[in-house]
Please model this.
Amino acid sequence: MIFVGGTGNPYFTTDTTAALRASEINAEVVFKATKVDGIYDKDPCEYPDAVMRDRITFLQAIAEKTRVMDHPAIVICRENGIPIHVFNFRKEGALLKAVVEKKGGTIICNDRKEDIHDNAG
Model:
């Protein structure tokens, strides 16, 4: 299933809405389509030596104040064991690669090395 849109409630972003809907249907993964390739160790616009991470934990994403997705959404996914796959929607084939190959971008998940598409959080 693919959900789009908001809740119509103040203070609830589309990220939070996606996390809420994902938890309601026991989704295996949340795909976060955005305009960046993934999550970097520092701002790549300011630091040319920034390194994109393939995988980080929910706690790292929160502690490092990741700006690619709002923190309430990350917390909802963490509490429900739903990994988040961040990828660049502007790159041709990125969604297909994320869904089919389970590659590209950055995965936000629990500490252990679970398969990102098995809701084993």
Observations:
- The chain has one domain: 14-109.
- Helices lie at 14-24, 58-63, 71-79, 94-101.
